[in-house]
Structures are given as C-alpha cells and as structure tokens.
Write a structure and sequence with these properties.
single chain, alpha+beta, eight-stranded mixed beta sheet, three-stranded mixed beta sheet, globular
C-alpha cells in the first residue's frame, strides 16, 4: 500500500571460527552476490579471520608493497590499495542489495564507517573519519609524545550489479608488526593500532555481538 513503511530485510549472519583462506572467501562472496542479484538467496554478513596475507585493491601502487615475500599477496578486486588481513582482526564481508537500500553507494560507504565508529564506542574508543584518508582513525596522546592518529579499521568495497562485496576489517588483537610489509592503504606517515594496543581486551565474540547490534542500528532502517 502506498505510504506504508516497508522493513529492510535482515541479512543472514555467518561467523567462522577457523581462519578462512582468502580465495575461499572470494568464491563465496561472488556466488552469494550473484544469488542475491537473482533473488535466490538472502543478503549476508560474514564475520571471519584470515591467515596472514596482503590484499591489493584496484588502486594499489607497486611501491607500497615493501616486502612481497613476507605473506601471500592477493588481488582483491575491491576499491582501495594494499591492506593486511590476519589472525586477531575481525573481517566483516557485507553482501547487501543496494537497490533495496536506496541505491546510494556513497551513503553505503558512510554507513560502513558509521558501523565501525558505533562499534568502537561500545568499547569506549572514539573512532573518527578523516577526509582523504580511508578507514577509521583514533587519536593517540601517549605520555611525553606528540599527538598522532592511528588507523584502527579499514574498509574497501566493490559493487557488482548493485550488490556489495567485501567490507570492513577491525583490528582487535592482530600482530601489528605484520603491517610492516606494506604501506597500508597507501597512507604514509601514520600508524596502525588495535583494541589491544589501546589497552582493551574484548573477546572476539564480544566484538561480534557489538558489530551485530550496531549493524542493525545503522542498516536496518525503514524505507518509504
């Protein structure tokens, strides 16, 4: 009926307890995105960890790969540059039908950022956006040192036939030295951090609970 608000569908949630090989994740996303497009499968959010690896987005500059032999390097097909995935990092792959959600890719990216920012707030961390710098950032004011900004979460997306692929990566407790083999997202002069590096010790299930609650707050909206 005209004028009635229709609820946006709730996606299927998948949580993997074992590290998922990157090629396996890509194959699943491709298959599910095609099925969402055809209307034969529901939208999906997949929370997982990967074994240590680097991924190269469509804008990755060869000079930003400092140590190509350290970990496997995968071409991701998403936007963005080089990033790291590995144990202790919660990756969220988000496969949504953007046609049903307003058809606004920029808003979708902003919503992914908002999702991360709200999740961080549950752990008393203030995450911020920075114009011209992808991801979510935190200000560091370590004693005796100048204030700096470190990246705590990255995001990169691809949209195919109005269905989203890829998503976010939130550093919970990864080995931050693994970032030394790349210039993350092509941004020099800034560091990376994690919840553990910030002095917080939530479990991965606690992070998952926060992500799920804040996803609903950001993405499950009524559409006229």
């Amino acid at each position: 009926m005209t004028g009635m608000a229709l609820p946006v569908s709730h996606p299927e949630w998948r949580v993997s307890d074992r590290p998922v090989p990157y090629d396996e994740a890509l194959a699943f996303m491709d298959s599910r995105a095609a099925a969402i497009r055809q209307g034969t499968a529901p939208e999906c959010v997949w929370l997982l960890e990967h074994p240590p690896l680097y991924t190269a987005g469509t804008s990755a500059a060869p000079a930003d790969l400092i140590d190509a032999d350290r970990f496997p390097v995968h071409r991701a097909g998403r936007g963005g540059e080089y990033t790291y995935h590995g144990p202790g990092q919660r990756v969220g792959y988000v496969m949504l039908d953007l046609r049903a959600r307003g058809g606004d890719v920029r808003r979708f990216v902003r919503d992914l950022e908002e999702w991360i920012i709200r999740t961080l707030a549950r752990f008393t961390v203030t995450g911020e956006r920075r114009e011209g710098r992808a991801g979510v950032w935190v200000r560091r004011t370590d004693r005796g040192a100048p204030e700096r900004e470190d990246k705590v979460a990255a995001l990169g997306v691809r949209v195919r036939h109005w269905v989203s692929l890829h998503g976010i990566a939130l550093n919970v407790e990864p080995d931050l030295s693994h970032y030394d083999g790349i210039i993350p997202c092509g941004i020099a002069g800034h560091g990376v951090t994690s919840l553990l590096d910030l002095g917080l010790t939530p479990t991965m299930p606690e992070v998952d609970m926060a992500l799920r609650a804040e996803f609903d707050a950001v993405f499950t909206k009524e559409t006229p």
